[in-house]
Write a structure and sequence with these properties.
Two copies of one chain form a homodimer. By secondary structure, chain A is an alpha/beta fold. Helices cover 43% and strands 18% of the residues of chain A. Chain A has two domains: 6-269, Queuine tRNA-ribosyltransferase-like (TIM Barrel), CATH 3.20.20.105; 276-369, no CATH class. The A-B interface holds A 38-47, 63, 67-68, 72, 75-77, 82-84, 116, 296-297, 299, 309, 313-315, 317-318, 320-322, 324-325, 327-329, 331-333 and B 38-47, 63, 67-68, 72, 75-77, 82-84, 116, 296-297, 299, 309, 313-315, 317-318, 320-322, 324-325, 327-329, 331-333.
């Protein structure tokens, strides 16, 4: 019995809706997971995330191990108690920072430079397991190597080899490590860039290790969307149907519904909140650039069809004003709206799968957002 | 019938508790008014202020006339609709910026430099009335001259003369200006530094003009507390008992209870929120410096006796972490706590007046916070 078996209650083509059962309880799939990098979604708190209907929230191992330190989080009761969040949590291993911070990588692990004080900090597959054990999320991720695309075949091959080797080490360490939090799930990560053969190989080698769930990493890192979807199309069928499938770093409307159609269950992305803080607003009729002067005297809500607390109370004109004078209140209210939109879209996809109407939603999203 | 008569329901010495009746409805006194300089209390929204029990919220005329412009606020329905706030509002005239921004002042008015783009902008007693009319708060303030203390007798005399002259012009203009929002109250402002004779003179000249309420300005701008309280003690008795009395810029615990004891009804101050954003936390046992390393692993709430939403859910350790990594969530949660403390203290003062026990509260506050 794994920590995260999937109960599928409806399918529509390759898409599926259902429930993931965990040691903590359960969460519905498909699901969008807001990103609380340093232990909070920027400008929001856990009560906001509850009100938004979020069920799983991410935190970042690299950042939390540096500030305040994984031992400090553990001493304060672990991630749930620390952040005051009673839903599910997932910690990213630091693998994405292998992509974004260009650390020194060797066979043993990764040597990072701290963004806070320049100190060097080492992360290995084993120490990532233990650090995430201290953080105490419901789901932890293996340390992987995420190549920036486009990449040479040699770089992709090396990323797949190291990821497979590290996954085996993480799996073994997670099983034998006695201090592992009870019921904490460990997800493997498939790499392979946009090379179909490498994707299939990476998927099979990862599945052979028997993880509680499977992430598809190394996509949405610079490649065209068709290449991303083609990679998903060859990868997902290799993954066992009784485990969650998590596409890392995707959260745009088209990416979400197309990946859901290919059988992906869960997603994370900073774009809805980061975009919101910069005035890029997601609406039923497409993207709205709130910094545009046309909205200075605009009394309409961000999205007349939206039921979020921001749209219920404040106008584009007010929100634009707060944004233009750098009031933190703007970051909060715009993040709430964009998360409501994104979580709402995934909720609609779940409903569409249950009714066998996902294609209708895909066409609607493509018509609004392009393909 | 003025727009803001006071109904006194209890007194304790010079202190009074009761209700101010306005065209909008009523608010209880004594009251602490959070400051939403640019149309939002920094990092908070109007729903937060409702939850905190705030009854009157300030906004700043100087800032709003520059960004987004008073006509824009008017076009978006005025300050209440703009900010989504159904309680009372008060706009500061820009007089405090005469103190803080050192503009060019002549008999006609003030020539400011915009903090946003360096443009010059003129404010006169009459234009301040009209600008605040466009903003549409329940209470507007006359344009006054606020001298920085210590000041020479000549500077203080000049500030009193200009303030009196401008008050007369504002009063006349507010009466005859046909576009004035119905029921909008106009408060005069007493100046005079810490010179008792000047304070009495300024109070009498202001009261002669028959305002809807009276502010005491030019205090808490550098003078010792005993000098501030002595100035209040000579000023308040000059003010009519049927009008609200507003001490501008005071919001520390001792300042609040001592001024309430001298008969002041309402207060505004940025210190609780600004201090909160910098980790200066108000608690029942005194000030707590959250940046202190001793709180890194501190699982206690900010204040075990506090009923605010921050103390109900998050630890000092979590809030300190968010503060140290500059997460806007920290600014919000710490501002909520410090406002809950400050509003709660004024609520306690109101209750103490009703029971005739204000002296007990004054002794308790002095014992905790010094005198």
């Amino acid at each position: 019995m794994t920590a995260t078996p999937v109960e599928v209650t409806a399918t529509d083509g390759a898409a599926r809706a259902g429930t993931v059962h965990t040691a903590r309880g359960s969460y519905r799939i498909p699901t969008f997971m807001p990103v609380g990098t340093r232990g909070a979604v920027k400008a929001l708190d856990s009560a906001d995330l509850e009100a938004l209907g979020a069920e799983v929230v991410l935190a970042n191992t690299y950042h939390l191990m540096l500030r305040p330190g994984a031992d400090v989080v553990a001493g304060l009761g672990g991630l749930h108690r620390f952040t005051g969040w009673t839903g599910h949590t997932l910690t990213d291993s630091g693998g994405f920072q292998v992509h974004s911070l260009s650390p020194v990588v060797d066979d043993d692990g990764v040597l990072f430079t701290s963004v806070y004080d320049g100190a060097t900090v080492r992360l290995t597959p084993e120490s990532a397991v233990e650090t995430q054990g201290l953080l105490g999320a419901d789901i932890q991720m293996v340390l992987d190597v995420c190549a920036t695309l486009p990449a040479t075949p040699e770089v992709l091959r090396s990323a797949v080899e190291r990821t497979a080797d590290w996954a085996a080490r993480a799996r073994a360490h997670h099983r034998r490590w006695e201090a592992r939090p009870e019921g904490q799930a460990l997800f493997g990560i498939v790499q392979g860039g946009t090379d179909p053969a490498l994707r299939v190989e990476s998927a099979r080698r990862t599945v052979d290790l028997d993880f509680d769930g499977y992430a598809i990493g190394g996509l949405s890192v610079g490649e065209p969307r068709p290449a991303m979807l083609a990679s998903l199309a060859v990868t997902v069928p290799e993954l066992p149907s009784d485990r969650p499938r998590y596409l890392m770093g995707v959260g745009d409307p088209v990416g979400l519904v197309e990946a859901i159609a290919l059988g992906v269950d869960q997603f994370d992305c900073v774009a809805p909140t980061r975009g919101g803080r910069h005035g890029s607003v997601l609406t039923a009729t497409g993207r709205l650039s709130l910094r545009n002067a046309v909205h200075a005297r605009d009394d309409a809500p961000l999205d007349a069809t939206c039921a979020c607390t921001t749209c219920a109370r404040w106008s584009r004109g007010y929100l634009r004003h707060l944004l233009m004078v750098n009031e933190p209140t703007a970051w909060r209210l715009l993040s709430i709206h964009n998360l409501a939109f994104t979580i709402g879209l995934v909720d609609r996809a779940r409903g569409a799968i249950e009714r066998g109407e996902l294609d209708t939603l895909r066409r609607e999203v493509a018509a609004t957002w392009g393909s």
